[in-house]
Design a protein that fits this description.
The protein is extended and about 100 Å long. The longest helix is centred in the middle third of the chain and has 31 residues. The protein is mainly α and about 270 residues long. Helix 4 runs parallel beside helix 11, helix 5 packs parallel to helix 7 and helix 6 runs antiparallel to helix 7. Helices cover about 75% and strands about 0% of the residues. About 15% of the residues are buried. It has eleven helices and no strands.
């Protein structure tokens, strides 16, 4: 019976298929996927509490911005070298992965500053190149350490202590959260596009345009869902300042170190 049914099949159905799709370069998809993976991994790695000290986050923000301001105003390299030594010691307390996360943008920013200020060396002021590069290294390192040791929720929540407008805090908080969510969606769509692409695609830009369009529609849907969820939960758009904080010994240690840095800054700018 099976042989009889097989003999009734048409000839074109019994022929073997030997289709071999032409090779095509999909580097545009691979680059897009790798870029998204890097961004999402950085966002998810942020807040790893490796080697952290329990300093109150608003005070930590104040200490860091005070150091950055003093470094920007400093005209003496002695103060910059002292702060640089402190930053390097702080980096030594982090994990190897956290150090790599901090130093990658630091080296990129320093390379950019060196490229911009390189003509000053030939104009007779090489000290300007050294001082500005040190300031960039210290400032970006301090912000990188803060990002690696504190979660965005705590950093954003601490902004209310400084009376930052609620609309600014809400915009910053929402943007950071949606970077990860939309990045996951874009990563899934790019992976599906790569798996389903067979043969040579001569209109790669159309595929990427479709991915961007679908991502835009998904972002609109997510924003509507988030708006309804906030309305159901009674969110009024205002952020609380949080509970009162008891000063710890680490807060006092940070205050002492900041006072010492201010003293060194005044001494280096007025006496030396």
């Amino acid at each position: 019976m099976a042989m009889q049914q097989g003999s009734n099949l048409p000839d074109w159905l019994r022929e073997k298929s030997s289709y071999t799709p032409s090779r095509d370069r999909d580097s545009f998809v691979d680059k897009g996927i790798s870029s998204l993976v890097k961004v999402i991994s950085k966002a998810r790695f942020q807040g790893n509490m490796s080697g952290d000290f329990p300093v109150y986050v608003p005070l930590r923000l104040f200490y860091i911005f005070a150091l950055i301001l003093m470094c920007a105003l400093s005209k003496n390299a002695l103060f910059l070298y002292i702060v640089l030594a402190g930053v390097l010691l702080r980096l030594c307390t982090l994990s190897a992965r956290a150090i790599a996360r901090v130093l990658k943008p630091v080296f990129a920013a320093c390379a950019f500053s060196v490229l911009i200020l390189l003509p000053s060396v030939f104009l007779g002021s090489p000290r300007t190149l050294v001082n500005v590069t040190l300031k960039v290294f210290i400032s970006v390192s301090l912000m990188g350490i803060l990002s690696c040791t504190q979660r965005w929720g705590r950093i954003i929540g601490s902004l209310k202590k400084y009376h930052i407008p609620d609309i600014f805090i809400f915009t910053l908080d929402t943007a950071i959260r949606f970077i990860v969510i939309l990045g996951d969606e874009a990563l899934s769509m790019l992976g599906a596009l790569k798996i389903r692409s067979i043969g040579k695609n001569r209109a790669k830009s159309n595929s990427m345009t479709g991915v961007i369009g679908v991502l835009f529609l998904k972002s609109q849907r997510f924003s509507q869902q988030m708006s309804m969820a906030m309305e159901c939960r009674g969110f009024s758009g205002s952020y609380g300042a949080g509970n009162k904080h008891r000063v710890s010994k680490y807060d006092l240690l940070g205050a002492v170190m900041l006072c010492a840095a201010i003293g060194v800054f005044i001494y280096s700018e007025t006496v030396i």
